[in-house]
């Protein structure tokens, strides 16, 4: 498997360094210093998120499956992917949010209703680079479409981040998706103690940069 | 109540003090009367004391007061607490959970997800989470209500949520109201109190008895995303 992440901005680069420390340096990280980087937006958040939605286009040809991991993720396990597996027919896999979501607009509500849950984009499996590129090409387009609605449509702003655009994109594609166990991306833990005592394989946090 | 001058005149008549001495004594007494007096420092958790209504004191480093009826009414706690109810003066220290009769029970919902309480006895009554306790509400973008203590209460109600300005930052919701042991009526009341928003603001009310039967549309129609 090829592990990939995007870290646009110093804060995210530091987090990506933690990610790589925790995984033995095997994550390829796209940053502002990457040759293919071009600023897409003057807003750092939008710029960074757009490059995340476009990440597959920064990967060199490979026959391996792709795993995308958010820069602020990390593991405390020696070999966290030892028991990772998906069905052979699975094109795309992710960890979903819990709860029933009710949105203030039709576009996002329909995307939610299509999938039946909100998709977390912090840890994603792609069967191969071709699948990843197809999803990213649609994802980055939908993300820019969402941007047009920021601060125009009620309850819509850049702080919705990238996941709604991903959900809209996937609803327009025909890939086989699989839901992963929460242990593959446990982003809800708040304290260091909770993280240290958890058996999850991966965590996400903007805090605890020196935990690894 | 007599004036300082009347007191001086009386003393002067009793001891036959003349002119300048009277003036000097008056000045000394005036200085004593006008000197700011240190507030009483209370070390044990204060309780409702009607006779002390209007008095201020220090508790855990912050200025508190025993509330008068006027102060209770202006805060919007009429009918919730009695005259002499002790509370922080500025009310920008932490959110207030009020018990129906007994003590002021501090529970902070911190933007750093760290909670503390200044202590109170357990109660099986209802509790009111009053957001006026957050002080500078325009800067509050994330509220996480610590739920480990609310199992003590039959129900949690909300007050002054119209003062909140919420906005999601990152993947965490801006308003986490999960597992507060609150019913649909109170959740709907919370939704009703919230002001309309143009920001991305998500309210999580899952894990409550009223989660499945509340009306999310009350909040989504005002621009919020709701998780039930």
What's the layout of helices and strands?
The complex is a heterodimer of chains A (212) and B (228).
Chain A lengths: L1 E5 L3 H13 L4 E4 L13 H10 L12 E4 L3 E2 L17 E5 L4 E2 L3 H10 L3 E8 L2 H19 L15 H9 L5 E3 L12 H5 L6 E2 L8
Parallel strand pairs in A: 1-2, 1-3, 5-8
Antiparallel strand pairs in A: 3-7, 4-9, 5-7
Chain B lengths: L3 H12 L3 H16 L5 E3 L13 E4 L2 E5 L2 H7 L10 E3 L7 E3 L5 E3 L20 E4 L12 E2 L11 E4 L15 E2 L7 H10 L8 E3 L12 H4 L4 E3 L1
Parallel strand pairs in B: 1-2, 7-9, 8-10, 10-11, 11-12
Antiparallel strand pairs in B: 2-3, 3-4, 5-6, 5-7
Helix pairs in contact in B: 1-2
Q: How many helical elements of chain A?
A: 6
Fraction in helix of chain B: 10-25%
What is the chains' assembly state?
heterodimer
Radius of gyration of chain A: 16 Å
Largest interface: A-B, 24 and 27 residues
Q: In DSSP terms, counting alpha (H) and pi (I) runs of 4 or more, how many helices of chain B? A: 5
Give the overall shape of chain A. Answer: globular
